[in-house]
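cron nightly-structures :: item 1 of 1
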Amino acid sequence: QVQLVESGGGLVQAGGSLRLSCAASGSIFRFNTMGWYRQAPGKERELVAVITIGGTNYADSVKGRFTISRDNAKNTVYLQMNSLKPEDTAVYYCSLKALGPQLWGQGTQVTVSS
């Protein structure tokens, strides 16, 4: 059974940076899509960034500020978040989609103070 474990969230001032990590354990099909989504209070979960063998895709709101990357040898995906804004405050969820249903991590809180 695949498990996703996130780390790296926390409290940061506006303009600061954080780096999220998500390690996937278990039997993983190598050609998969990993990504980050976020959910702010009272809002729906939204895509932040995804990475596949073919490239990356970002939400317009984070382009130029966030960078997604992955280490296939470690089955780990990262999200480098720079120039953080208060509106980036949310619970960030790691996701993996391979041959089966989309899988989710437990979430990590990111809070950006103004």
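cron nightly-structures :: done
The CA atoms of residues 40 and 90 lie 4 Å apart.
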